[in-house]
C-alpha cells in the first residue's frame, strides 16, 4: 500500500459503549466522515446490539 492510501482510509478501533471492553476493528474514509464514527454493532458479551464508538 502506498502512503497516500494509508492516510485516507486509516484503521480504527470501535469500543463498545456497554462497558464490556469488546472491540471491532474497521477502516473509515477520512474525507467522507471526518468526525468520530458511531455504529450499532452486536456485542456478544451482553448478547444485543449496542453503539460502538471510535476510539483514538
TrEMBL record:
GO molecular function: structural constituent of ribosome
Keywords tagged on the record: Ribonucleoprotein, Ribosomal protein
GO biological process, one term: translation
Protein name, as recorded: Large ribosomal subunit protein bL33
Keyword Electron transport: no
UniProt-listed Pfam families: Ribosomal_L33
Gene3D superfamilies: Ribosomal protein L33
Annotated GO CC locations: cytosolic large ribosomal subunit
Amino acid at each position: 500500500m502506498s502512503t497516500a492510501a494509508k492516510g485516507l482510509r486509516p484503521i480504527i478501533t470501535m469500543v463498545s459503549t456497554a462497558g464490556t471492553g469488546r472491540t471491532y476493528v474497521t477502516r473509515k474514509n477520512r474525507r467522507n466522515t471526518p468526525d468520530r464514527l458511531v455504529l450499532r454493532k452486536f456485542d456478544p458479551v451482553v448478547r444485543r446490539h449496542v453503539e460502538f464508538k471510535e476510539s483514538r
